[in-house]
Design brief:
Blueprint lengths: L9 E5 L7 H16 L5 E5 L5 H8 L4 E5 L16 H4 L5 E4 L2 H4 L8 H13 L3 E6 L3 H5 L3 H12 L5 H5 L2 E4 L13 H20 L1 H6 L1 E5 L7 H5 L6 E4 L8 H8 L3
Parallel strand pairs: 1-2, 1-8, 2-3, 3-4, 4-5, 5-6, 6-7, 7-8
Helix pairs in contact: 1-2, 1-12, 7-9
The structure holds phosphoenolpyruvate.
């Protein structure tokens, strides 16, 4: 911990390509909003598909619940068919997930570290808080390459980004083999990788104060049952939740994350 200012935990829901119809997204939000609105001591962020971002922005306007997108282009505008820019998103939400492994994947968008760096830079320029995802695959994990790979991803994504900007960013450590598999990392392993590889890379780039100021989440098969164990880890400042964020008991998960 910083010694100056404790890090406020942050829990983010990645709805992925689900609940993208206005009627279903609004109905679900109406179910979870009362419970989520009562939770204190924790920043909460919902990241729905782009199709319902505006509708949810209206419904969340007078709550403490934040809103985020799941990706954004680095350019502000121009000839980029099908893309949405950080400049556009900044009109309706506060956060943007960047560099998710499902977008880095070759069979998906093959996003490079360089492109993710441009995206992070653009998000910060437009006042959005990036939730930068990093994490190793199973092969790298088994080969003992996790530290090298994850710290490399952090450094590449933040190239040229100033310390002040990094301090208001969020990083999500998401081992790829744990995403959507029901096989979460152990809380101790998540804690170790976040401390050693994520904060270690931040310390190398910006010094210890900045490294201690950045909030780092764990992501990968987080559930209402295991969230408490992750939150108990000193390096873990919250979670990025996929599958479990689509269920009504996400409210219980959020309560447990807040220690209630
Ligand atoms: C994710 O996709 O960011 C994620 C962590 O998914 P899940 O919680 O379903 O593993």
């Amino acid at each position: 911990m910083n010694g100056k200012m404790p890090r406020k935990p942050i829990l983010a829901a990645n709805w992925k390509m689900n609940l993208g119809r206005a009627d279903e997204a609004i109905a679900f939000l109406r179910k979870i909003r009362p419970g989520l609105s009562e939770i204190e001591g924790l920043d909460l962020v919902l990241c729905p598909p782009i199709t319902v971002l505006s509708a949810l922005a209206e419904l969340l306007a007078r709550t403490r619940i934040g809103l985020g997108a799941q990706d954004a282009h680095w350019e502000s505008s121009g000839a980029h068919t099908g893309e949405i820019s950080n400049a556009m998103l900044a009109q309706i939400c506060q956060y943007v997930i960047l560099g998710h492994s499902e977008r880095r994947a070759t069979r998906s968008h093959s996003e490079s570290d360089e492109a993710i760096n441009w995206k992070v830079t653009a998000a910060l320029e437009h006042g959005l808080t990036p939730i930068l995802c990093v994490g190793e695959n199973l092969e790298q994990n088994r080969a003992g390459q996790t530290h090298e790979f994850v710290s490399g991803q952090v450094k590449a994504a933040l190239a040229g980004v100033a310390a002040k900007q990094v301090e208001r960013s969020v990083i999500a450590y998401e081992p790829i083999w744990a995403i959507g598999t029901g096989e979460a990392a152990t809380p101790a392993d998540a804690n170790r990788v976040i401390g050693l590889s994520v904060r270690g890379a931040l310390a190398e780039l910006y010094g210890e104060d900045t490294a201690q100021a950045v909030r780092v989440q764990y992501g990968g098969s987080v559930t209402v049952e295991n969230i408490g164990e992750f939150m108990a880890m000193p390096e873990v400042d919250g979670a990025l939740v996929g599958g479990a964020s689509l269920k009504a008991d996400f409210v219980d998960l959020a309560r447990a994350a807040a220690g209630r």
